[in-house]
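Recall the central idea of this unit: under ordinary conditions, the amino acid sequence of a chain determines the structure it adopts. In this exercise we apply that idea directly, starting from the sequence alone.
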Amino acid sequence: MMANNRYEKLRVLVVEDNAFVRSLVVKVLYNIGIRDVAQAADGGAGLEQLSASKPDVVICDIAMTPMGGLEFLKAARAGAGIDVPVIFLTSHTEPDIVMQAKELGADSFLAKPISTGMLKDRLDCVLNRKSDKRPPPGNPA
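Accordingly, the structure predicted from this sequence is:
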């Protein structure tokens, strides 16, 4: 797939406890042109990477231990005060979980398994919504 200049400077954090799924997501991101990808195996490590890598977008699983995606999002939005778009990549699409995630500030959902086109569409959607509030991806605030 041909890389798009819009994605070349985009920084993405992937928070996923399953190493195989995490590597697939990274490969899909690479296929659409994203080269700056930080990774974390749970929400706690994700919070550390959030501060260290300063991503433009976070792609996060919900069901992880010891800190899951909902706890990660709550901490990122409240304690850290970080307003980075968060896309939940999950097999947990039950209405109560979706509602809880939206109340915590989730920007989008993507049900597993994913495809390159679906992930690209979600990225475009959250980036377009945030574009008037944030500096362009890859630029310091």
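The first strand starts at residue 11 and ends at 15.
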